[in-house]
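Can anyone check this?
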Amino acid sequence: MGARKKITADKRKEALKEQYFAKLNNVPTSPRKMRLVADMIRGMEVNRALGVLKFSTKEASRRMEKLLKSAISNWEQKTEQKADQVTLYVSKVFVDEGATLKRLRPAPQGRGYRIRKRSNHVTIFVDTKDVEPKN
């Protein structure tokens, strides 16, 4: 690794130490379905977001709920505070496309239709909202 690349990599690592997140890779759900769930909770307060995810009928919401609990736990561990004492918010949610498994399904007249089984990577960032007093 070159010196310039190493310096930028170190800066990126230091920046991540000040952010509180959880990441889930290779979720066997299409990214489009997972983005619908991510859009429901983006910008919400975490306790409200957990309630929304718990009572959602979408299958992707179960995985997102577990991931959000993990992000809250990571925040508690890094700051050494309890999440009950502070108002935490879901600051960012990313859903990126993962690997796609390609399969063939038999079709009429000797043909084959391609089936794409998509997966995704989800990243949730939690943070406290800074409330500055107006003078």
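Reply from J.R.: I decoded it. The chain has one domain: 21-105+113-128.
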